[in-house]
């Protein structure tokens, strides 16, 4: 109320109380907020009632595909599971308080280790002519203090008895009796933080929910990473496909979309294609729950989107639940894995 123009004396009606304007402002603000609260609450209740009606209708359905088909009500996706419950606001507050307080044990419990790149991208056949020529990183596996970020190998290239010599490693690597050195390890899984992981499967390379930025919204704004990255995006020399489970910012990093653009095929849940197309990225395959597809360039690889419980939105509340969320099952002739 500093400005002269705004005092009660300048009003057409003479109000003889200097508190009247602030009181009026307070009244307008609080009634707007109350109106907003009650109207969203009413919408939320109506939506929840509609969701319950759908659940009742689906109760008698026999097939899982029908019972747990994706559910859309008034343009918004919902969880067709009786088990789903909304997260109350105070749980969110507690979560963030915990984040601010930090976790001092994290550094020792989760040491950051560089992925074994020579295992992920094995050198050419000629360089690998026997167990003694295994890339050095393989010997790291099964040491006394294994760490979570080690790449985990299910079936490696060489026949048994390999690197037990010297260091006496209890093999966490299971060696496949049938040698296929030209293919490298048939399956590796490398966790890169949050839901970002790099999976190689029969020579097919998969990146999941890629986030490589230091912060969640953009490089200078938004919550910071809890742990730094074990490697950079460019270290993953070849990526065939990217699986995106939903559009939350801690699962889909716009910077990565810019960098990879159309060089990879993006497998995404329903309703997210427009977001990619607006950024000039067309190499995307949108899947609904239960849909599966053979990857075009590798017909032996099947990618299926399957149900999961969650929600979506990058600019909440404007785009809340406008696109779907999903888990993925990826299958090759020999292997399969679930990303959720
Ligand atoms: C979004 O969907 C989730 C899951 O169904 C639900 O709990 C939440 O209330 C929805 N949010 C809005 C704003 O509709
Ligand atoms: C992706 O590449 C296309 C050309 O292929 C370009 O038009 C578009 O701007 C690129 N998108 C991003 C996000 O860099």
UniProtKB/TrEMBL annotation:
Domain Metallo-beta-lactamase: 205-339
Any one GO molecular-function label of the UniProt entry: N-acylphosphatidylethanolamine-specific phospholipase D activity
GO biological process: N-acylethanolamine metabolic process; N-acylphosphatidylethanolamine metabolic process
N-terminal signal peptide: none
Residues passing through the membrane, by range: 20-38
Pfam families attached to this UniProt entry: Lactamase_B_2
GO cellular component: cytoplasm
UniProt-listed Gene3D superfamilies: Ribonuclease Z/Hydroxyacylglutathione hydrolase-like
Keywords: Membrane, Transmembrane, Transmembrane helix
UniProt cross-references to PANTHER family, sorted A to Z: N-ACYL-PHOSPHATIDYLETHANOLAMINE-HYDROLYZING PHOSPHOLIPASE D
UniProt protein name: Beta-lactamase superfamily domain-containing protein
Classification of source organism: Eukaryota, Fungi, Fungi incertae sedis, Mucoromycota, Mucoromycotina
């Amino acid at each position: 109320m500093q400005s002269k123009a705004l005092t009660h004396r300048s009003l057409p009606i003479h109000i003889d109380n200097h508190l009247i304007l602030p009181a009026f402002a307070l009244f307008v603000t609080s009634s707007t907020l109350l109106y907003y609260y009650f109207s969203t609450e009413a919408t939320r209740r109506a939506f929840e009632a509609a969701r319950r009606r759908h659940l009742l209708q689906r109760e008698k359905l026999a097939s899982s595909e029908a019972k747990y088909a994706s559910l859309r009500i008034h343009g918004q996706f919902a969880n067709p599971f009786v088990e789903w419950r909304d997260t109350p606001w105070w749980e969110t507050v507690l979560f963030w308080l915990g984040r601010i307080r930090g976790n001092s044990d994290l550094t020792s419990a989760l040491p950051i280790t560089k992925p074994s790149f020579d295992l992920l991208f094995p050198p050419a056949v000629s360089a690998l002519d026997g167990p003694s020529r295994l890339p050095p990183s393989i010997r790291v596996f099964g040491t006394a203090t294994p760490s979570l970020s080690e790449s985990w190998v299910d079936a490696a290239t060489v026949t048994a008895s390999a690197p037990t010599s010297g260091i006496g490693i209890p093999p966490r690597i299971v060696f496949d009796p049938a040698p296929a050195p030209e293919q490298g390890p048939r399956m590796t899984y490398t966790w890169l933080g949050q839901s970002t992981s790099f999976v190689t499967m029969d020579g097919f390379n998969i990146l999941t929910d890629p986030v490589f930025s230091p912060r969640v919204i953009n490089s200078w704004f938004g919550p910071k990473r809890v742990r730094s990255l074990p490697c950079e995006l460019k270290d993953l020399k070849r990526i065939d496909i990217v699986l995106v489970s939903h559009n939350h910012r801690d699962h889909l990093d716009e910077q990565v979309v810019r960098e990879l653009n159309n060089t990879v095929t993006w497998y995404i849940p329903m309703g997210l294609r427009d977001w990619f197309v607006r950024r000039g990225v067309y190499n995307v395959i949108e899947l609904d729950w239960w849909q599966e597809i053979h990857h075009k360039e590798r017909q032996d690889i099947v990618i299926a989107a399957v149900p999961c419980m969650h929600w979506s939105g990058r600019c909440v509340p404007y785009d809340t639940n406008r696109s779907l969320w999903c888990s993925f099952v990826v299958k090759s002739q020999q292997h399969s894995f679930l990303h959720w």
